[in-house]
Amino acid sequence: GQQLNQSPQSMFIQEGEDVSMNCTSSSIFNTWLWYKQDPGEGPVLLIALYKAGELTSNGRLTAQFGITRKDSFLNISASIPSDVGIYFCAGEYFGNEKLTFGTGTRLTIIP
Amino acid sequence: GAVVSQHPSWVICKSGTSVKIECRSLDFQATTMFWYRQFPKQSLMLMATSNEGSKATYEQGVEKDKFLINHASLTLSTLTVTSAHPEDSSFYICSASRDTYEQYFGPGTRLTVT
To answer: Which among B6, B59, B102 has the least Cβ separation from residue A45?
Structure first.
């Protein structure tokens, strides 16, 4: 099935650094969601975006829905050890309820 | 709110046997439930979408006779992997949605077929 392109694939950062990742698609979506998945667990919803241009924050996390409806980014400020995991973007296309998932960004914090 | 549970969390079965996985929305009624599978270091791939009381809609390439889905109520969906083979070993995750497009995921079930 179709997947969204996420970049970077992996990130190695030091605690306290800011993180930025993005997600792009060849198709437009009307909803963008960002999830975090820990090993052996299901994804946990972080942020939901519903309008083009929307900028939404959840604590240290900020995400934006691109104006073209074909991209989104997620920023994490002042990273902490519990931020380690895999981050997935997901898009929903106009009312069909199904989500298309990104390829994932693996975040590792170097001690 | 929006808690989804799965049972079992892991299962080992012999080749040729069937395995049933349950997905429950604990504190809300789910209009739709979804089943995904995830291979190591890969993203989630949607297998099927199910609505309470109706037949599941399967994604292209997913065998409906092998992966039986029953959505008995607004809080329970089951996935049965019939005649399991080693290539069916994977991480199976369900999700549930209520009245928005946000999906809430269960903790997943790791299936190992020997």
So the answer is: B102
CB neighbour burial string for A71-91, b if at least 16 within 10 angstroms, e if fewer: bbbbebeebeeebbbbbbbbb
Contact A5, A102 (CB under 8 A): yes
Q: Which two three-digit tokens encode residue A71?
A: 């991209």
Distance CA B41, CA A103 (A): 9
Cα B43 to Cα A52, B20, B38, B53, B64, distances in angstroms: 25, 23, 6, 29, 21
B46-103: per-residue pLDDT in tens? 999 998 888 899 999 999 999 999 988 999 999 999 999 999 999 999 999 887 678 8
CB contact under 8 A, A99 and B46: yes
Tell whether the model's pLDDT for residue A1 goes beyond 70: no
- On the question of pLDDT at A3 being above 80, the answer is no
Give the Cβ contact number of residue B69 at 10 Å: 24
Whether the CB-CB separation of A23 and A32 falls below 8 Å is answered with: yes
Residue ranges of alpha helices (H) inside chain B are none
